[in-house]
Every structure is written in C-alpha cells, then in structure tokens.
Amino acid sequence: MHTALDISASALVAQRARLDAIAGNIANMSSLKDETGKVKPYEARYVVFQTDEGIATRDGAVGVKVSAVKQETVPPLYKYQPQHPLADENGYVAYPNIDLNSEFVDALEATRAYEANIGVIEISKNMAAQTLRIAG
Amino acid sequence: MTPIGALSPALPPGFASPATAAKPASAEAFRSFLMGSIQEVNGMQQDAEKAMNTLMTGGDVLPAEVLTSVQKADLSLKLLMQVRNKLVAAYQELKDVRI
Q: Which pTM does this prediction carry?
C-alpha cells in the first residue's frame, strides 16, 4: 500500500545525494590537493543511480538507489603562476577543471527532479485519502 | 439483466478478489488479522517516532525519509480507524435488532 511512497522517498534520497555531490564539486573548485594531502587537483564527482529491487511492487515498479560515486577524469586547468608554492618546474599550477555552468544546470535538474517526486508523493497521499472515503 | 455474481470482477489477475481474500476461516482468523493490523500500525508509529527522534537529535537521517515515514504511519492509522468505525457501526446496527 505504501510502496509508492517508499519509491518516491528513495528518489528523494537519491536526488539529495546528487545535490550533495554537486555541492562538493563547487566547494572544491579550487582544491589543489586530495584527501591525503598529495598535490592533485580535485576531480568532479558524480553519483550514479541504479534501480533498487529492495523497494519493489509486485507489478515490477522499483525504487532507486545510489550505485556509486564516480570521479571524472579530465585534464586539469593549468595556470601560469611561477611564484605559487605548488607550481611545477615550468611554473604552472594545476587547478581543478570544474565547469560551473554544467554544475549549476545539474543542480537545477536535481532540484526539479526532487520537486517532481514531492509532487508524486502528494498524489499518492491524496489517492490514499480518497480511498479511505470508500469506507467513510 | 446479468446477475451480479456472473460479472467478472474488475480486478487485475493475480489480485485476490475481496470475496476470497476476506473470507474468514473462523472468528480466530479475523481476530488475528485485526491484531496483526493493529501491531503493524503500531510498528509504523514507532518507526516514525524513532526517525523523528534521530532527526531532532542531529542524527544522520534525511528529513524527507522522516516525513515519509510519518506520513505512512498517519495513513495506516487512518485506515485502521476507518475499519474500526465500520466495525462499531456494524455492532450498533446488530445491537438495535429487535428479537
């Protein structure tokens, strides 16, 4: 009876994770080192979704879950800053190659998807309330 | 006119028709069904409360999940109340039968 709600909730969680990844990408757009402190410009991370058989109706409708968080592999942006402590022998500093435009479009898409799932929850809720009217 | 019994039920295959699903083998079966439903609703309420507590005490849980479980608990409670109202109404009806 509540599987539709569960499926929509799983989508909310997934879209939230996607937005978290985007937030991380934008937050780290100037990070020159990785988690271990090694000099390595940040690479954009994206979450990959997959269907979740754990939340399924008997008709085969399934929920969604985060399958993995993948790192992008693009060449970094080189800026000529010979005075920079992290500059290489040619005087270039490697900066993360984050495309703000596509990140924002992604964020907008995640937000809209979140909204859409809220809408579906609303519809499921109304349907359940209408069903109760049969007995009332 | 087609008798009601001859009409095919408007339910998809694989979906138990109410006549077969709700046929109580005995009073005991209905009682256990009722108690089971009450326990299920109670469990949902407890889940919702636990999730709410986790959220309010700063636990790592998304508000969307918490609110969904609260909504689920609310819906199942409403359904249970409808069933209960129906039962009470049936009892009142029978109580007023003159012998």
A: 0.76
CA-angle at B60, arms to B57 and B64, nearest 5°: 95
The residue assigned the tokens 């009332």 is A136
| ipTM for the whole complex | 0.70
Which residues in chain A are contacts of B64 at CB distance < 8 A?
9, 12-13, 16
- What span, in angstroms and rounded, lies between the C-alpha atoms of A58 and B81? 26
pLDDT score, position A135: 79
Nearest to B66 by CA among A65, A76, A16: A16
CB < 8 Å to A9, chain B: 64-65, 68
B11 CB within 8 Å of a chain A CB: no
Token pair 């005075």: residue: A83
From A132, which residue of chain B is nearest by alpha-carbon distance? B79
Instruction: List Cβ neighbours of B15 (8 Å cut-off, separation of 6 or more).
Output: none
Confidence tier at B3 by pLDDT (50, 70, 90): low
Contact call for A12 and B71, based on CB within 8 A = no
* 3-state DSSP assignment of residue A50: strand
What are residue A80's DSSP bridge partners?
A92
Q: Longest Cα pair distance anywhere in chain B, in angstroms?
A: 65
pLDDT at A59 (0 to 100): 87
